[in-house]
Amino acid sequence: MIGRTISHYRILDKLGAGGMGEVYLAHDLRLQRRVALKLLPAELAARRERLERFKREATLVAALDHPNIVTVFSIEEADGLHFITMQLVSGRPLSRRIPRQGLPLEAFFDIAVPVADAVAAAHAKGIVHRDLKPANIMLGDDGQVAVLDFGLAKLLEDEPRAPASSRTSTSTTPLTRAGQAPGTAAYMSPEQAAGGAVDHRSDIFSLAIVLYEMATGRRPFEGSSQVELRAAILAVEPPPVTALRPDLPRHLGRIIARGLEKDPPHRYQSVLDMRNDLAGLRRESESGDVAPVSRFDRGRRGRTLLLTAVALLAAGVLASFLYRWRAAPPTPALRALPLTSWSGSETQPALSPRGDQIAFLWDRGRGSGFDLYVMLLGADEPLQLTRESGRIGYPAWSPRGDQIAFVRRANGGGGQVVSIPALGGKERVLWSTPESSIAYLDWSPGGAQLAFVERRHALDSGRILLLSTDSGETAEVAAPPHRQGVVSDRLPVFAPDGLSLAYVRWYEAPRSEIYLQPLPAGEPRLIVEQSGWIQGMDWMPDASALLFSTPWQGATGLWRSSLAGKVTQLGFGQEAGDLTVAASGDRLVFSQDLTDANVWRIAGPAAALPQAPRSLIASTRDDWAPRYSPDGERIALVSNRSGDFQIWICHADGDACSPYATPARANWPCWSPDGRQLAFSQQVGDQYHLFVGQVDGGFPRQLTWDAASAHACDWSADGRWIYFYSARTGANQIWRVPAGGGTPQQVTEGGGMLPLVSDDHRYVYLLRAGPPAGIWRRALAGGRETLLVEREGLSRRGFALWRGELFYAVRVGNGTTEVERLDPRTGASAIFARLAGTRQGRLSVSPDGRWLVYAQNDARGADLILVENLGG
């Protein structure tokens, strides 16, 4: 190829071979510049799947506009050859720049942080590299660091998703099929080495391997063959980097070790978190404020290396075993089957003690409330037990299977615990309360008690009570002290042996904890800390583990935790909610959420003519919290269409939507007054923090760092301040922080959420949970706080400002929401619009007043899914 001209590119030299073809140095005769040209050999181009993959690589990388990712200029075909033209980075790969003893700390950070930035940018676009290694990291002669060769990269969702109305399957599209393991063996994650499905956390493991090699000059996993190498990745715990280099900061060892966790849930869940930890450690090292390894730690080095040698020997034995084991008959695979697919929502399933019947709630698609049903598994029609279409929930079987308990909420407040024969009949009230609300329900194995959660008011986190089914007396279950940010305690479930009770605690972040409470008394023990809010939980029949469902990287899944806190994913269960496990332990049933929220538009207050609502921005996932830009040309919103909740920016007509440069799990975007910056809340570890970044490029920077979350922002009219709400002082209050960074300042004393600042910067409008609950206004110069709106059914999220007027949403029942318009200067209010469908998310009025946008649930429902071959 050298010396040949293809189209207008003269081939000068061969640079190497990439994941999909050979790379050459070429001269662009038209633009008079040097480029890298990646050529797909003719014999591979003749194979359709190779050609499509080659084109796909170019498309993926072209979407990644980042200074530390090689730029793709074009994909072309000439003389029967297919090739990609790319930015030429003159220099050497990292694989040829790592000395035997590892890189100096300063050089380590100069490379590690930009590489993590690049991987974070790819993940923000939903792209997983799958072949991170030193050979694919180029160190330019000018100091540039660039990640190369996305030949094995793949989107998190690269197959079309069915419309929400037709979704019944729970399977998800894996990045790799079982048994395949693309990538370079020495830098594979355990899930890659095992040939399983991978996600973005596989890149985090591979990046940690690269960091380990950069720090020590050696790889963490070694083997004389591919089999031994993969076995080492699966089984060996490498020595800490600080055991090999005692001069390194101790915290660097912890960062790399967390990235090398073999179970994906125990790793960093976002490469941005890893990058932020590296950047923070870099700042500490530059200031000299780092902790070196102690002499005691160094004394363990020899023992660690000895143990590693033993582990490597064991890995060889394991490899031999795995080779023989592959020929053994496979265990039955988990299989998910639709149990119901009727109109409306079927939810809150409970399997009978024998596992042959299922109790559940169903609204028949009428939107008028749920009733309790029982169905024999395999039957076509369920038996209806209640006929009130009322406020009931949380069915629980008695141990004998002859009764079903459930919760009934009274219209005027209060609630009851009720039991009804499993075949229908007369109800019996077991316990009632005139004011408190009741949620969740579980029957003890002996039948003598029912566990449930009582909440005395809307802001109460609740207490878990045990109800005697004989005497009707209750006793409160011990709970750990309430810490900052607690939302509620929920989901109490008795262990199969009746000796303990597990329950869940929610935090604002969102984050969940699972506690184990010995019975009849004892101190609760924390066994699991999990990002996201756990939606459903039940025990395995042998009391050895708990199964639960929780949002994780944007798709709810099913998980298993041992009582020691070791968490593993079952590998499917997208959109899973409530769940129940059969007493046999071989099956479970969960509810699958089918909600689909989209952005709608109606005529605004300055429109010449009214217009019927119409869908503006839609996908088969959730799109919500729209916000017009100051010039009215764009709309920022939150969507999980790429797998996790990110900020997206669309044209005001609903077209040309693209993800903003934020990693996963971000929400509540707000525009700066000049429209050049976006602020938003983003999850970092267990908290949400405020970030701000340029709309048209650049990496967002973090503004809040406290140990409490920051939510829902708005800018001051002069662009100097960003307002948000946080519970950092114990209760939600409005705060503000300088847009350029600085110390947050508290604005309110009486509580508040969802701040909106008036155009003249005289007032901040806020939502207060009470008492009294409603929309309030506070003068920023000080003075009284004024209650403007006090209404039953006031949406917690839906209000907007336009030219001094307030627009807010009120739920009035029967699936209808009214948007009311208030002039705070005169107190005059009127109904502005009536909206069908269930609203969720914020309102936003275009700057010219022609349009009002909002989010609406266009599809709302749930099906029951049966999982077989669960195992013990």
Description:
By secondary structure, the chain is an alpha+beta fold. It is globular and about 90 Å long. Helix 8 packs antiparallel against helix 9. The chain is built from eleven helices and 60 strands. A six-stranded antiparallel beta sheet has the order 1-2-3-4-6-5. Strands 35, 36, 57, 58 and 59 form a five-stranded antiparallel beta sheet that branches. A four-stranded antiparallel beta sheet has the order 12-60-34-33, with no helix packed on it. 15% of the residues lie in helices and 40% in strands.
Rg: 29 Å
Query: What's the main sheet like?
Result: 6 strands, antiparallel
Please provide the count of β strands: 60
- The number of distinct helices, counting runs of at least 4 residues, comes to 11
Distance between the termini: 59 Å
What does the average pLDDT come to? 82
Beta-strand proportion: 35-45%
How are the SSEs placed, and which strands pair?
Elements: E1 5-6, E2 9-18, E3 21-28, E4 33-40, H1 42-45, H2 48-62, E5 72-78, E6 81-86, E7 91-93, H3 105-124, E8 127-128, E9 137-140, E10 145-147, E11 154-155, H4 190-193, H5 200-216, H6 226-235, H7 241-244, H8 250-259, H9 271-287, H10 295-299, H11 301-325, E12 335-338, E13 346-351, E14 357-362, E15 371-376, E16 383-384, E17 392-397, E18 403-409, E19 415-421, E20 428-433, E21 437-443, E22 449-455, E23 463-468, E24 474-476, E25 486-494, E26 500-507, E27 511-518, E28 525-531, E29 536-539, E30 545-552, E31 555-562, E32 567-569, E33 576-581, E34 587-593, E35 596-603, E36 614-617, E37 623-628, E38 634-639, E39 646-651, E40 658-659, E41 666-671, E42 677-684, E43 687-694, E44 701-702, E45 711-715, E46 721-726, E47 733-738, E48 745-746, E49 753-757, E50 763-768, E51 774-779, E52 785-789, E53 794-802, E54 805-813, E55 816-822, E56 829-836, E57 838-839, E58 844-845, E59 851-859, E60 862-868
Antiparallel strand pairs: 1-2, 2-3, 3-4, 4-6, 5-6, 7-9, 8-11, 9-10, 12-60, 13-14, 14-15, 15-16, 17-18, 18-19, 19-20, 21-22, 22-23, 23-24, 25-26, 26-27, 27-28, 29-30, 30-31, 31-32, 33-34, 34-60, 35-36, 35-59, 37-38, 38-39, 39-40, 41-42, 42-43, 43-44, 45-46, 46-47, 47-48, 49-50, 50-51, 51-52, ...
Helix pairs in contact: 3-5, 3-9, 5-8, 6-11, 8-9
